[in-house]
UniProtKB/TrEMBL annotation:
PROSITE patterns: LYSM. It holds the Pfam family LysM. It comes from Duganella aceris. Residues 38-87 form the LysM domain. Keywords: Signal. PANTHER family: PHAGE-LIKE ELEMENT PBSX PROTEIN XKDP, POTASSIUM BINDING PROTEIN KBP. The keyword Signal applies. Coiled coil: none annotated. Residues 1-25 form the signal peptide. This is LysM peptidoglycan-binding domain-containing protein.
Length: 368
């Protein structure tokens, strides 16, 4: 997605509240809930997903209903606490207003300013986010999927200050490897292999994030030593000899526009972060599909428990007394998954609405 100017923002906001005009072009039908309220007062802690869930059967299709074009917009529209989302039932669209009088007229649409306004001071500081940002922030730059031979040539800790077994904050670490001009690095340790639940092939490794190192002195050519001196800037877990380094990546854009994948995707849950066996709402899982399979940041998938295979003892076995038929039960939908970080063959997803615990091996596929 691309950045856009202030003029572009005004155009997007204008289109945003043209409402349901874009619904007919949606690949999936976005329906308003039968019990949708007349309006919603935005409060601190709201997310666009939560707000949309009050009005729509499918909360994640709010960009379509509110006229957002994911090729034109890089940020969510600026909705702030104190504003009102008003459901214009006659027109079948949503509108944004500002409350004029806090003591009267709250339920009177005529008392709302229905013209979108662009804030020029503190832009985005208190704006409502798309999804619960706190649930995924640690996963944007810290937990890491290692694929193929990405570990080859990674700088590594070869010695510690005074031969200590583990390093803590402000301790020195001695590192060998190419820094490629970087001065800040994450320290990680390869974890267990991630296996595809279907093929049983190893498709990557999940690395454990240990902390960060800051370059103190770079090895000088011709000095007789190719060892760099680092200082521990932060330590989340114990780090030591043999742990590997990765340049700290830039913090990615933290505003997301949910959408169905560009192509049909059928995947399985590979792992639940933290090593637990079941996951619920606002927990993170990894799936066995990535950018090479048509997924990108913001893709929404439906979660299903894979149907079990059972014996049909009621089927006619025939006169030869054949064995009972083996049949697969239907997959049972249990929730939705919001993809927020994508690797080549693996992706991280945040579980949104869920009606039953998610397990490794569950199905995650394009909305139907």
């Amino acid at each position: 997605m691309k950045n856009f100017s202030t003029v572009g923002t005004r155009l997007v906001l204008a289109a945003l509240f043209s409402g349901a005009a874009a619904v007919s072009a949606a690949p999936l039908k976005c329906e308003f809930r039968a019990d949708a309220p007349d309006q919603h007062l935005v409060v601190k802690g709201d997310t666009l997903w939560d707000i949309s869930g009050k009005f729509l059967d499918l909360p994640w299709c709010w960009p379509t209903v509110w006229g957002m074009n994911r090729d034109e917009i890089a940020n969510p529209h600026w909705i702030y606490p104190g504003q009102i989302i008003w459901f214009d039932r006659a027109a079948g669209r949503l509108r944004l207003g500002n409350r004029i009088d806090a003591n009267s007229g709250v339920n009177d649409p005529s008392r709302l300013r229905l013209q979108p306004q662009l804030r020029t001071e503190g832009l985005g500081k208190d704006a409502v986010t798309s999804i619960p940002a706190g649930a995924i922030e640690p996963f944007l730059t810290q937990p890491l999927i290692i694929e193929d031979d990405e570990l080859k040539g990674a700088p590594r800790v070869i010695a510690t200050q005074e031969g200590r077994v583990f390093l803590g904050k402000d301790d020195k670490a001695y590192v060998r490897g190419e820094l490629n001009g970087h001065t800040s690095f994450q320290v990680f340790r390869p974890g267990k292999p991630l296996k595809d639940p279907v093929t049983k092939q190893v498709i990557g490794h999940e690395a454990f994030y240990l902390g960060t190192l800051k370059l103190q002195t770079e090895a000088k050519p011709g000095s007789g030593s190719d060892v760099h001196t680092f200082t521990v800037a932060s330590a989340k877990e114990e780090m030591g000899k043999g742990d590997q380094l990765r340049a700290v990546p830039p913090m990615p854009m933290q505003n997301y526009v949910p959408h169905p994948p560009e192509q049909k995707v059928a995947s399985r849950v590979v792992a639940i972060y933290g090593g637990v066996t079941h996951a619920g709402q606002n927990q993170v899982v990894s799936i066995n599909r990535g950018k090479l399979d048509g997924l990108d940041v913001g893709s929404v998938l439906q979660l299903y428990h894979a149907g079990r295979t059972v014996s049909d003892s009621t089927a006619d076995k025939g006169w030869l007394g054949m064995r009972e038929q083996q049949v697969k039960l239907p997959d049972e939908e249990v929730g939705s998954l919001f993809i927020f970080r994508v690797f080549k063959h693996i992706s991280y997803g945040l579980i949104m609405q869920v009606s039953a615990p998610v397990e490794v091996g569950d199905v995650a596929k394009s909305p139907e």
